[in-house]
Amino acid sequence: MPASFGFSNIWLQGDWVTRSILLLLLGMSLASWVVIFIKALDTWRHKENALNSEQFWHCTSLAEGLSVLSQRPNNLFHHLALTGQEATEHHQAAQKQLHDRLDISDWLTRSLRNGIDDHTSHLQNWLSILASIGSTSPFVGLFGTVWGIYHALVNIGTTGNVGIDAVAGPIGETLIMTALGLAVAIPAVLGYNALVRGNKFIIARMNRFAHDLHAYFVTGARVHSSAQGASHVV
Amino acid sequence: MTTSPLKPHHISPRRWRNTIAAVLLVHVALLWVAQSQLAELPASDESGKVVMADVVSDIPNPAPLTHAKTAPTATPTHTLTKSVTKADTPALTPNNSDTQEAAASSAEAAAAPSTASGKTGSPSLVEPSADADYLKNPPPGYPRISRRNGEQGTVIVRVFISTQGTPEKAEVRTSSGFARLDQAALEAVHRWRFVPGRRNGTPEAMWFNIPVRFILE
Predict the structure, then answer these.
(1) B11 CB near a chain A CB, below 8 Å?
(2) Is A35 or B61 the better-scoring residue by pLDDT?
(3) What's chain A look like in SS3?
């Protein structure tokens, strides 16, 4: 259906700049939504795992706690507990290396810190794409609009046609590109903010869990933190 | 889907694939919806008396392809033959340009069967017509690009009208010189309904030529 209006019209009339801008906006939109969906599911799972990590401390033995944590797929907290366990075992087993000069507390802190850092960087994967799309796509759309208006005006100048149709039609059409840019940017920005907030929660919970693990592996008992149960990020 | 706990951030290729496919589908659907919505916008400037395609009647003369100038026999021949048309196109003015009727029908000129002129040669052949009030045939919209580029012309669309009055086939018989206008005329005619032509009082499927004029004012 050759519409006398709409996207197809812009596409048919546009030069390669207009077309590449439209394609770029489409690609940006696809990328941002794919990232939002993939990351949202991950973040939701990690949050569930974070809330569930408390179960670990209700277990009677380390092995049982690990098996409880391992029942959930992609569990960062299971991973952290394993890291702590391995670090402790390694520290006890190895006697001939530099880190023997470290006491168990420092060694554990270092291992858990590394684990948390790894997870944090993984949690932030792809988020830079969202941030970039959210901040640049309005400008991309705006560029398309300005380009289109420029050509429309030049066209009016050359043809000498100053009817309202000749002016309003092309310029109105190019404004769609600004609208598209905004339509791409808004979900990207909102999604980025939501995901960053979710990540903060997960990282805070990882820190708390790592502190408890540290206390457990060093002293054999969990330090009862007063903040336990409160989910506020400090 | 037990992934190793040592790769808690692993995203399976299947999940990537499904997500990408779903997002792509939604985008295509949205684009399609947006396109059709925009396309169906009642362009306000097309409702005025600014630009309208004009429909005038053309009188086909269904005659067997014998190149004989004789009048066709009165026996209903259901073998459809190419209609040799006379090239007289009485450009009828819109019959309701002054009335208060809706603008949608203002450009619809009467495609009156000029059987009274007696040129058809067959005493009881009634042409199909597309101008009866209840048919509500919308005139073709003027393609925006064509209007901008100042494309004008007359398309003669050749339609095969069934006994039910539906256009079975439609083709451009004479191009206006602009593919866009031809296409717009074809699409409009495809949506129309007709009063089927009659031979000796019985409806008969026949070819019919409809000139559609695109004129910028």
Answers:
(1) yes
(2) A35
(3) CCCCCCHHHHHHHCCHHHHHHHHHHHHHHHHHHHHHHHHHHHHHHHHHHHHHHHHHHHCCCHHHHHHHHHCCCCCHHHHHHHHHHHHHHHHHHCCCCHHHHCCHHHHHHHHHHHHHHHHHHHHCCCHHHHHHHHHHHHHHHHHHHHHHHHHHHHHHHHHCCCCHHHHHHHHHHHHHHHHHHHHHHHHHHHHHHHHHHHHHHHHHHHHHHHHHHHHHHHHCCCCCCCCCCCCCCC
Element (H, E) at B22: helix B13-39
pLDDT in tens, A13-29: 778 999 999 999 999 99
Provide, as residue numbers in chain B, all residues whose Cβ is less than 8 Å from the Cβ of A166: 148
* C-alpha–C-alpha distance, residues A1 and A19, integer Å: 19
Residues of A in contact with B36 (CB under 8 A): 1, 3
Question: pTM of the entire structure?
Answer: 0.58
- Give the model's confidence band at B191: pLDDT under 50 very low, under 70 low, under 90 confident, else very high: confident
CA closest to A29 among chain B residues: B27
Nearest by CB: B19 against A1, A6, A37: A37
Q: Select from A5, A52, A209 the residue whose CB has the most chain B CBs within 10 Å, as the one to mutate to test that interface.
A: A5
List the one residue out of B107, B91, B95, B171 whose CA is nearest residue B139. B107
How close B13 gets to chain A, by Cα (Å)? 11
pLDDT confidence of residue A113: 96
A13-16's contacts with Cβ under 8 Å and 24+ in sequence apart are A13/A170, A13/A173, A13/B145, A14/A148, A15/A151
Q: Which two tokens stand for residue A98?
A: 């530099």
Q: Which distant-in-sequence residues (6+ apart) come within 8 Å of B18 by Cβ?
A: none
Nearest CA in chain B to A32: B23
Residue at A78: amino acid letter: H
pLDDT in tens, B116-143: 333 444 557 777 777 665 677 777 878 8
Give B-chain residues touching A9 at CB under 8 angstroms: 144-145
